[in-house]
């Protein structure tokens, strides 16, 4: 290692938090891993410090007394000097809306407390890598501009030099056959004193012999045409000097006529080696810049995809925790209700038997009891109580089914595949989305038509597949709702009622012949989810699986649902996800999954 080489500068990180304990913990953690850490106890101090000495990255809390993290982030993004500094929010707020607000304020990433040290370090280094890549790209663009500027200056200087410097020249008298060569020609050819060009025609062949073998046929034919036919030429050709140096020259020739007769041919030769070298250097530089730009574009695209996966993973993790918590909280009271229904029914039966026995024993009740019997309508009560108990039991079982579906959906961190019933996953997803299928305002109820085929158990990640079903069905419902909104102003009530919003779900098992070394049959399940919504044009279909692409209004879609669904089906399950649609013809999503994929 070169002892004189300067060590790589540490990345500077500013931590902004109103809790001293948090500042000490994060500062110690980052300093231990080689970062230069600065701390600020509030947003105002941080803002002044960033403007005075901008850091490479900012770790920012949200809840602070004088100015919250959202406001500070917005101020930083509004200042040109600090706009490009990546900001990572580090907060205990884990609601999806809090995170959306953070990204709208301009943050690069979001970490929820309590955090894992390795996660913080990984995300910090990820953002610093992105910042370094951007800086490298800007530096290379600047260097390229400098090279182009230098080349332009060189060309300008070269053109000026051509005008003001002596250029090697020659002339041939076509009548006397005498030749004349300037001293500069000998200098360009690097001829010694004893080998100077003379005025005889033999000197022409001597002069032409210095051109490289590849240029010999070109220059000799051009020279002959100039002498015999008076045709001018202007060529750039390589030659080899008397000292064996390779050079490029520009050589020209022009015939002078008098009364229609050619009298003399004038020509010149100019060394353009430096210009050619500069052009070649620029060509190579442009090629390198194109390669670097392509590589950086690929790197940034991969970083963008990685960021999309991180955002979606964080969002789904938070959603899974929330769903699991809600399911648990609902399940406890429902279990109490469901468990007490049978004893309550038995107690009520005993009381009714007691009343019936009492009526048989004392058929003539007192006036007070008789009035009370009429007031409470005892006959109806004895007849209806069992119906009430049955209705309560059905309701409790329904809630229990929904809780089970929510628990199943919340298992988003499943590590191993298992054989599952595809139809069960579809039904549970529909159960969760049941509230969105009901009639709302002018929109009629969405009818779901199931056409389930005979399917064997499929080896897959159950929760991830349910997430795909959730995304596809949600998109179908959104499309139908949008179609209804667009039609509400142009159709009458009777027309709207005659058009029913529908979603069809078809499943089947198919077999395909694979072209391998041996003929092989692959079995797969195919799930088709079809809606009669407005459909999509071809341009939209080409982009629907791209991260962050969405046709929904701002605030109603992140553009990650279909991108993540594509990744789950194609990368995780070795399957295929495609879309067939046309404007006004509805949309069909086709999911294909190998039955025994590993």
Describe what this molecule looks like in 3D.
- By secondary structure, this protein is an alpha/beta fold.
- The protein has four domains: 12-139, 3-Layer(aba) Sandwich (Rossmann fold), CATH 3.40.50; 166-271, Beta-Lactamase (2-Layer Sandwich); 304-409; 418-488 and 496-594, Heat Shock Protein 90.
- Helix content is 53%, strand content 19%.
- The protein is built from 17 helices and 17 strands.
- The protein has helices spanning 20-32, 43-52, 69-78, 96-105, 117-164, 183-188, 202-208, 216-229, 273-361, 367-376, 378-409, 422-432, 434-437, 462-487, 493-498, 538-543, 561-572; strands at residues 12-16, 36-40, 57-60, 87-91, 109-112, 168-173, 179-181, 233-240, 246-258, 261-271, 418-420, 447-451, 458-460, 502-514, 520-531, 576-581, 587-594.
- It has a five-stranded parallel beta sheet with strand order 2-1-3-4-5, sandwiched between helices.
- α14 packs antiparallel against α17 (561-572).
- It is elongated.
- The two termini are 48 Å apart.
The portion of residues assigned to helices is: 40-55%
Structural class: alpha/beta
Number of helices: 17
Which parts are unreliable, with pLDDT below 50 for 5 consecutive residues or more? 1-7
Shape: elongated
| CATH fold-level assignment of the largest domain | Heat Shock Protein 90
The CATH architecture of the largest domain can be given as: 2-Layer Sandwich
Considering the protein shown, what is the CATH homologous superfamily of the largest domain?
A: Histidine kinase-like ATPase, C-terminal domain
For this structure, what is the CATH class of the largest domain? Alpha Beta
Number of strands: 17
Average pLDDT number: 81
Q: Tell me the domain tally.
A: 4
Strand content: 15-25%
Give the distance, in angstroms, between the N- and C-terminal Cα atoms. Answer: 48 Å
What Rg, in angstroms, do the CA atoms define? 42 Å
Largest sheet: 5 strands, parallel
């Amino acid at each position: 290692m070169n002892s004189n080489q300067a060590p790589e500068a540490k990345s500077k990180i500013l931590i902004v938090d109103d809790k001293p304990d948090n500042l000490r913990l994060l500062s110690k953690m980052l300093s231990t891993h080689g970062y230069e850490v600065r701390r600020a106890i509030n947003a105002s101090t941080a803002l002044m410090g960033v403007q005075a000495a901008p850091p490479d990255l900012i770790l920012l809390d949200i809840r602070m007394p004088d100015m919250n993290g959202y406001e500070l982030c917005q101020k930083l993004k509004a200042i040109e000097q600090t706009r490009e500094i990546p900001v990572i929010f580090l907060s205990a707020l884990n609601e999806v809306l809090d995170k959306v607000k953070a990204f709208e304020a301009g943050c690069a990433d979001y970490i929820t407390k309590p955090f894992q040290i390795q996660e913080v370090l990984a995300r910090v280094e990820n953002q610093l890598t992105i910042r370094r890549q951007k800086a490298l790209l800007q530096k290379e663009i600047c260097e390229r501009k400098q090279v182009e500027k230098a080349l332009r200056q060189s060309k300008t200087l070269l053109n000026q030099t051509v005008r003001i410097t002596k250029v090697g020249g020659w002339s041939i008298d076509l009548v006397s056959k005498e030749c004349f060569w300037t001293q500069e020609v000998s200098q360009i050819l690097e001829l010694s004193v004893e080998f100077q060009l003379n005025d005889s025609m033999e000197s022409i062949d001597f002069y032409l012999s210095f051109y490289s073998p590849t240029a010999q046929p070109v220059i000799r034919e051009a020279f002959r045409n100039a002498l015999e036919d008076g045709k001018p030429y202007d060529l750039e050709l390589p030659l080899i000097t008397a000292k064996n140096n390779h050079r490029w020259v520009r050589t020209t020739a022009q015939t002078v006529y008098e009364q229609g007769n050619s009298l003399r041919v004038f020509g010149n030769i100019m060394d353009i080696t430096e210009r050619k070298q500069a052009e070649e250097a620029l060509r190579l530089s442009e090629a390198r810049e194109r390669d670097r730009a392509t590589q950086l574009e690929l790197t940034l695209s991969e970083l963008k995809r990685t960021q999309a996966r991180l955002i979606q993973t964080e969002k789904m993790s938070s959603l899974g925790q929330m769903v699991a918590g809600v399911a648990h909280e609902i399940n406890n009271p429902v279990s109490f209700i469901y468990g007490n229904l049978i004893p309550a029914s038995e107690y009520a039966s005993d009381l009714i038997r007691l009343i019936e026995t009492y009526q048989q024993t004392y058929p003539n009740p007192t006036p007070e009891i008789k009035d009370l019997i009429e007031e409470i309508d005892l006959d109806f009560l004895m007849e209806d109580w069992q119906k009430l108990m049955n209705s309560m039991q059905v309701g409790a079982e329904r809630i229990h089914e929904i809780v089970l579906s929510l628990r199943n959906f919340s298992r988003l961190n499943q590590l191993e595949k298992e054989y599952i019933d595809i139809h069960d996953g579809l039904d549970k997803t529909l159960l969760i989305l049941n509230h969105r299928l009901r009639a709302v305002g002018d929109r009629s109820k969405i009818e779901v038509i199931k056409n389930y085929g005979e399917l064997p158990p499929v080896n897959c990640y159950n929760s991830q597949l349910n997430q795909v079903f959730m995304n596809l069905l949600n998109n179908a419902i959104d499309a139908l709702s949008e179609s209804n909104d667009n039609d509400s102003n142009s159709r009458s009530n009777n027309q709207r009622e005659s058009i029913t919003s529908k979603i069809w779900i078809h499943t089947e098992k198919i077999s395909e012949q694979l072209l391998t070394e041996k003929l092989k049959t692959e079995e797969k399940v195919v799930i088709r989810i079809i809606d009669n919504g407005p459909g999509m044009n071809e341009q939209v279909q080409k982009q629907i699986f791209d991260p962050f692409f969405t046709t929904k209004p701002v605030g109603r879609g992140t553009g990650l649902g279909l991108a993540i669904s594509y990744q789950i089906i194609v990368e995780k399950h070795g399957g295929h996800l495609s879309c067939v649609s046309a404007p006004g013809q509805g949309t069909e999503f086709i999911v294909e999954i190998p039955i025994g994929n590993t």
